[in-house]
Amino acid sequence: xxxxxxxxxxxxxxxxxxxxxxxxxxxxxxxxxxxxxxxxxxxxxxxxxxxxxxxxxxxxxxxxxxxxxxxxxxxxxxxxxxxxxxxxxxxxxxxxxxxxxxxxxxxxxxxxxxxxxxxxxxxxxxxxxxxxxxxxxxxxxxxxxxxxxxxxxxxxxxxxxxxxxxxxxxxxxxxxxxxxxxxxxxxxxxxxxxxxxxxxxxxxxxxxxxxxxxxxxxxxxxxxxxxxxxxxxxxxxxxxxxxxxxxxxxxxxxxxxxxxxxxxxxxxxxxxxxxxxxxxxxxxxxxxxxxxxxxxxxxxxxxxxxxxxxxxxxxxxxxxxxxxxxxxxxxxxxxxxxxxxxxxxxxxxxxxxxxxxxxxxxxxxxxxxxxxxxxxxxxxxxxxxxxxxx
Length: 390
Prior knowledge:
Radius of gyration: 22 Å
Distance between the termini: 80 Å
Mean pLDDT: 81
Oligomer: single chain
Order of helices and strands: EEHHEHHEEHHEHHEHEHHHHH
Helix content: 55-70%
Strand content: 5-15%
């Protein structure tokens, strides 16, 4: 059929499939007929991938600020309306960051064994259904703020609650408690149409809509508690990425076997074949989300400084563009699999640290604790209760 060049493709993590990075390379799918991308097609594909990678990082970081403020205020108004738990950010601590590469490695190798032992067709069928559900919810959550602006104020927006409990009386326990409204139902309906399109056709546009939604939600809702944790996470995944790409064929095997919207794709033969093109350049979601959550942390640090500037956010954002561009250049030059975090991690960490050194704010950056205000509240409450008891 064709020969396809891949930009780094991420391997999936068990639940979110957003955490690992990478593989790319050149695969001859048919030894007798090789597709050679035109310079225009290659430039269009790579340029489109870079733009698609930047969108969820930029908007996800902005939404993470709103999400963080809503969490501090203890409000439930922000988000998709799926209930209190689905909108709350998940904070990654230093211990979580240290364990993350180990868990990712176990998951990656487990998937490799699964594809070796069981039929690839049935595994991908199960994964398609799983990611159909996740994709519909993620895309609906992504669309919700936009829909809130589109709908007129006169729109009859009714409130609903989906509640499942276990037991009765004093032993009654909530299992599921989702609060949503009519606007949320509209978002779910639109997302379901995209989901069935992906499930039935596996079209690359539907894949990208789900992939962008996953990436934006990951950047928005996965919060690093401080810069040190971010350095531990990125450093660990830097080693993980290099080892599994250069040291073994596990990453490449899983990436080629895994059919799920855990990557962004863009056809290099779009100009020749239109929307039916089939020779794709690819970028894994891990190469977006992992640096993205660090960039989002720096934006929240900028906001905490209250200087009405976004110096660290923009420096890390530009560093990401540089790192991704360097990855594509090296891959395209040497025609060999490249772990994207090999270039993205030094750029995304090094540029902001250099800026902090020049501004004399390095210690302040590493002292920044996002949850420090929240952690202080229980201590004050406990001291007040002790005084009352006395």
